[in-house]
Amino acid sequence: MASTIKMRATERNGVVVVKALMSHPMETGQRKDKKTGKKIPAHYITEVVGEHEGKRVMTAYWGPAISKNPYISFKFKGGKKGEKVRLSWKDNKGQSDSMEVAIR
Amino acid sequence: MKSKTIILAAAVGLVAGAPLAAQAGPKEDLKAFREYFMKRFPGVPLDEFANGVYAIDAGMRSEWEQMEEFPPYELGLDVGKAEFYKKFKNGKSIADCFPNAEKGIKQNYPYWDPKRKEVVTLELAINECRKANGEKPYKWKTGKLAAVSAYIGYLSRGKRINVVVPENDPDALAWYERGKRFFYAKRGQLNFSCADCHVVNAGRRIRANLLSPALGHLTHFPVYRKKWEAKGTGPLAGFGTPHRRYGGCNKQVRAKPFKAQSVEYRSLEYFHTYMSNGLPVNAPGVRQ
Questions:
Q1: How many C-alpha atoms does B61 have within 13 Å on its Cβ side?
Q2: Which of B3, B194, B203, B262 has the largest CB neighbor count within 10 A?
Q3: Of B97, B129, B194, B249, which is the active-site residue?
Q4: What's this model's pTM, rounded to 2 decimal places?
Q5: Pick from B66, B70, B229: CB nearest A6
Q6: What crossing angle do the helices spanning B170-184 and B263-274 adopt, rounded to 10°?
């Protein structure tokens, strides 16, 4: 199955900027199903981790306030072109996904 | 309900000083329309109006440019492309009905059909293609229809809008005038016209949102709205055709919406797109 993460990492003047778009319903748990009237169960990303060459450079704790198909952008120092950056997410249902790109 | 165009236009101070004689035709309307917006938003190049609110607000523009790095409509466009080339039971495809699509054709829609004496929109043409080939037409306003229209629009990026109101055809002019009246007529419980928001108050806030100028509307349709994406599921949820938006706008001023491809909405689309003649197509556009 295709990854839920589209990602790009660019290095400039010693700083790497990572931008990523994740496909995820980010259901708050408060929305009601129009047909049944029941609440749609909560399903949202709880943790996002960014790693550079295996070392953690960013951790984000998310909740239902983050919108559907979230976009994240973060920077870190010390990455060089060609080195690997990995972004991973975990959600409240135990699902997860991860994506790795080379720094351009 | 429908006020006379001339009185209404004067009342909203739209074209102060310009002659509003009964002889003023589409070309004069277009010139006045452009002049109004160029004066209202000085420093915005004419072509930039195709980008709507992003032409007049730096903050929203920077958000949009970030969104365009991973365009949310990409997956939907792929579906539209697949549908465009998919073979019907009789071996043909939508692509066969639009042989010049790859060169860009969206800029010519909607067009006046002198034999049928009606305005044909791109969405109408797509579904007529399906029916003519023995296939069930798509549902209007959303889904696969919008995706196919978005794909055709995408292929036409950069082409200049070129809606034609034939000079010596009073029937065509009547449709144009009907659309123009619709645009300037007040409607709904809130008693707003399209012009109230998108001409008089373009650039001002409506709650947390910014009103886009009408100049440049429809260059970026079908549109991919984050609001529709959030409500639905799947890669096509965000797409909507002009008539979907017209219906939504009418509901928002608490007026009963017209049906997709109704005479009213097709007339409106005819006038509305004509007002963006010369501007570049940049469909599908991403909006809130």
A1: 11
A2: B194
A3: B249
A4: 0.85
A5: B70
A6: 90
pLDDT tens digits for range A56-87: 999 999 999 998 889 899 999 999 999 999 99
**B97: annotated active-site residue:** no
Please give the pLDDT value at position A83. Answer: 96
Predicted local confidence at residue B17, as pLDDT: 43
Q: With an 8 Å Cβ cutoff, are A71 and B229 in contact?
A: no
Chain B residue with CA closest to A21: the answer is: B70
Q: Is B184 helix (H, G, I), strand (E, B) or coil?
A: helix
* Helix residue ranges, H only, chain B: 5-11, 26-40, 58-67, 74-85, 94-97, 122-132, 143-155, 170-184, 194-195, 226-231, 242-252, 263-274
Residues 130-169 of B with CB under 8 A from A: none
Chain B residues with CB-CB distance to A8 below 8 A? 69-70
Give pLDDT < 50 ranges for chain B: 9-11, 13-21
- ipTM confidence: 0.73
CATH number reported for the structural domain that contains residue A95 in this entry: 2.60.40.10
Instruction: Indicate the SS3 state at residue B41.
Output: coil
Q: Are B110 and B270 in contact (CB under 8 A)?
A: yes
Q: Give B233 to chain A, closest Cα distance, Å.
A: 8
Strand residue runs (E) in B184-222? 205-206, 209-210
Residue A80 at interface with chain B, using a CB cutoff of 8 Å: no
Average confidence (pLDDT) over A86-96: 96
Residue with tokens 């660019």: A10
Q: Which residues pair with A48 in a beta bridge?
A: A60, A89
Both tokens of B125, joined, read 């043409």
**Half-sphere exposure of residue A51: CA atoms within 13 angstroms, side-chain side:** 12
Q: Spelled out in words, what is the top-level CATH class assigned to the domain B1-288?
A: mainly alpha
Find out whether A71 and A23 touch, Cβ atoms under 8 Å: no
On whether any CB of chain A is under 8 Å from the CB of B232, the answer is no
Cβ contact A68–B229 (<8 Å): yes
- Domain range for A60: 5-102
- By CA distance, what is A27's nearest residue in B? B230
Task: Tell me which chain A residue has its CA closest to the CA of residue B227.
Answer: A68
- Averaged over A13-40, what is the pLDDT? 92
Q: How many domains does chain A have?
A: 1
* pLDDT tens, position by position, A5-16: 999 999 999 999
